[in-house]
Amino acid sequence: MRQVKVIKTSSSKTMEDRINETIQNLNGEFVDIKLTGAYDGSSERFLAIIIYEKNE
Question: From the CB of residue 33, how many other CB atoms can be counted at a distance below 10 Å?
């Protein structure tokens, strides 16, 4: 069954660290990742959705 993990951060370095940590600790097989970022003039926001196939 496909599952998702959502990661939200306000810095690119934190996003990279959290993505790596999440992928290493998945209870299943990595399928895909979707990334987006935004800047509102004063701060950055990043969002990652990690899609994986859950081990049963």
Answer: 15
Sign of CA dihedral 50, 4, 7, 40: positive
What's the Cα-to-Cα distance from 35 to each of 7, 46, 51, rounded to whole Å? Answer: 10, 7, 11
Contact yes or no for 37/4 (Cβ under 8 A): no
Whole-model pTM: value is: 0.87
Between β-strands 2-9 and 44-54, what pairing exists: parallel, antiparallel or unpaired?
A: antiparallel
Q: What are the distances in angstroms from CA 3 to CA 7, 21, 28, 40?
A: 14, 17, 9, 30
Question: Over the stretch 3-40, which tens digit does the pLDDT of each residue have?
Answer: 999 999 999 999 999 999 999 999 899 999 999 999 99
